[in-house]
Amino acid sequence: MSTGSLLLTNALLTDPAARTQMHGALLIKDGVIADLGPGLTKDKVGSDVEILDCGGEVLAPGLVDMRAVTGEPGAEHRETLATASQAAAAGGVTTVVCTPETHPPIDDPAIVDFVLRRARDTSIVHIHAMAALTKGLAGQEMTEIGLLGEAGALAFTDGAHSVMNARVLRRTLTYARDFDALVVHHTQDADLAGDGVMNEGEFASRLGLPGIPAEAEAMLLERDMRLVAMTGARYHAATVTCRASLDVLRRAKADGLTVTASTSINHVTLNENDIGAFRTFCKVSPPLRHEDDRIALVQAVKDGLVDAIVSDHNPQDVETKRQPFAECADGAIGLETMLSAGLRLVHDGSLDLLTLLRALSTRPAEILRLPGGTLTKGAPADLVVFDPDTPFVLDAAKLKSRCKNSPFDGARLQGQVSRTIVAGRLVYQI
């Protein structure tokens, strides 16, 4: 951590927590925000303060990504904590929460400790770990949630694996409630999804590919809501993607359940048509849905029904992606492109900038009970500076992630990160 002082001047201070924007400056001391506002100038701070001119760009809280696969330990050829952190910094993400889909899975306190120590040694952003809900991610026997929490696990999930046994999930939710632990669940009925590889519908039929119905998601989410009502646990739906799920979520929140939800950046900016001529980089889980579902998701983010947007970063190497669509692995990288892709929604008028940033930083921080997501005195100096209007064409080869399976490869994007600051230290700069 930097113990020096830094004054960021000539910035558009954008605080999604307070829903305010103003031109001014921000002072960082000892890794936290010491002061900010339009009246703050270099003449009002000490001579030992370093000055950084933001050139009128947006200065906002760093993004908090609730869902990313990092690969380490066991799959370092896909991604390491170091390379994931470099990709995150380049995308304005200052906090990454990694899933337990490693080898071995993060289902033991010793593995939680390893990941956190490794992150402290190699990462340039904050990295937290979610631990497994069930041993081996097998969905049969719950893990020691209490011990894993003591070791530093931030939340509990089986990643892209759904717990199909309702009795196991009920017991897990009950146990998690007693520790006030957050359960993050992937809602896709494995039996109903079967061998499907994309959204079920006319487009899947035209491509000759087996589909996954939206009901596979909505039905499992409905079951989970009933279990949450029984247990009173804190529950987060990992990736909602369809209108039917939004109806379930709306009823659950209306009933006062302690339920939150996120969707992925892929599902609010892409649809099933982006698969085109079998583009494997667009094969994700849950699958990309119909355009009507995408529009409904964006509206749900705007209304606050869907609380957060995640990158769902899942690096896959050439051997697993350069295959026929039906046989390739699910997953797309997203840490470095989450903000730029999300700004598409701002430029087309679907969302305003404050609402987008609230879903990318403020609400994830609140759900995970992490500091950050706001520009207030005393808050951590985890910040991103970006120009929302800078146009560029994405060249996946230049991305910092170890794998290059971006669904936005070759896409025209608008909005580029120029600086990322973590705990008062500049970790990325163009």
From TrEMBL:
The keyword Lipid biosynthesis is assigned to this record: no
Domain of life: Bacteria
Domain spans labelled Amidohydrolase: 348-428
UniProt keyword terms in alphabetical order: Pyrimidine biosynthesis, Zinc
A Pfam family assignment: DHOase
Xref: CDD domains: DHOase_IIa (cd01317)
Tagged with keyword Zinc: yes
Annotated Dihydroorotase catalytic domain residues: 56-242
Family matches, as SUPFAM superfamilies: Composite domain of metallo-dependent hydrolases (SSF51338), Metallo-dependent hydrolases (SSF51556)
TM annotation in the entry: none
Protein known as: Dihydroorotase
Gene from which this protein is expressed: pyrC_1
